[in-house]
Sequence to fold (440 residues):
Amino acid sequence: MTPIKRKLLYIFRDTLLRLRITWNHGTSLTVSVGYHVNKTDSRGRSSWDGSRCRKNTSHGADKVPASVINRELEILEERISKAFFYFENLDKIPTKEELKEKIKPEGAAKGKTISELANQYIQEQSILSQWTFGMIRTVKRSLESMIAALGPNITLDEIDDTKYATLLKSYFSRPLVTLKEDDTPKVTHGLQNSTINGYLNNIRRFARWAKERGYCSECRITNQPASLKTIKKPVIFLELEELYKIQSLDLQYFENLTKARDMFFFCCFTGLRFSDMQALKWGDVSEDSIEIVTKKTSDRLVIELNQFSKGIIDSLSVIDHNNSDNVFQKMSLKHFNNLLTELGKMAELNEEIEIANFSGTEKIVQKFKKYECITSHTARKTFVCNALSLGIPPNIVMKWTGHKNYKSMNPYINITSKAKKENMNLFDNLPPMKSSKKFR
Fold:
């Protein structure tokens, strides 16, 4: 048995981690590890030491823990060692193709259907990447849309350009049923491109996972265009005058509407998401602030109370409670959104809002009354927009909301044109200057 000298070197293609195996005086094979790895974190500190992710770091858009990636690297290196040991026993120098075939994961079999792989993918990745219930539901819905369009028995390698076109066509023609105000059904056809892009992103991640684990060879679906054309939706928020309209409603005979208004206003003046507001305990509330760990991003936030949010807390604190009790009554998101629509309608928030999008190449323009567009997330947008309009610096607002960078704040900053104009008018209060060429 002759030992085969080899060298393993981790390299990057952007953030995608790959392993280059070199043997036999220059023969090399590069394989993908299957994960995106950040060399540095948001503060510029090293997250990669050359062969492993540093402890307590997370990587890629899915924030995969270092421990998960490092375990995969150990498994890959072990398969490579076993493969070379196999060829050493044969006293044979392997070709690139022979080594590639030998280091495939045990049990990796091409030809598995997308239905079989989808179940395995969700079960595995939901644990490794610690997906929330909402993420699991979104991914499952995306993969089910592909199975419904192409059939459960097709394999990923069979999805060529024709099959991909069939998938897109199913999205563009899917019937959608919505209810009008009088509860009569209205049927339209075609998913919006923004929705389709979300589906396709999840499908491509699934295909890359399958390819990296040897369940398919070509997976041409990963090479399809990144996204379909979309139009940015307007940021819908409530001006302070509109909040006062809702506040002035007489709701003494409408208990559910009163509770929904309190919840909505609390979010409007703290920036909390609906899920975090519902999870808020009395033990999280102090005299002048609340402290939470957000459900979506696991950020620990301390949010100071103002006269509006504190007023709501004070009105609820008269009821006997323990620190482990919820501050607000539990309510389903759907029911909450329905109550918000009713509140907006009662407050006569009838401003017409136009929302445009594409379904395929067809531009679809829809017009709504503003009260029809109010949802739980409107409260968070309302907090950010009004805070910026009041002149609170974006970096302070981000401390309250948990936004990670200014890019995520841009949609809100761009719509505060009214405050921008009012601030420019402050120059008009300055004493006039003498005429000069430089001011003409």
Remarks:
- The longest strand covers residues 27-36.
- The two ends are 90 Å apart (CA to CA).
- Confidence is low (pLDDT under 50) at residues 435-440.
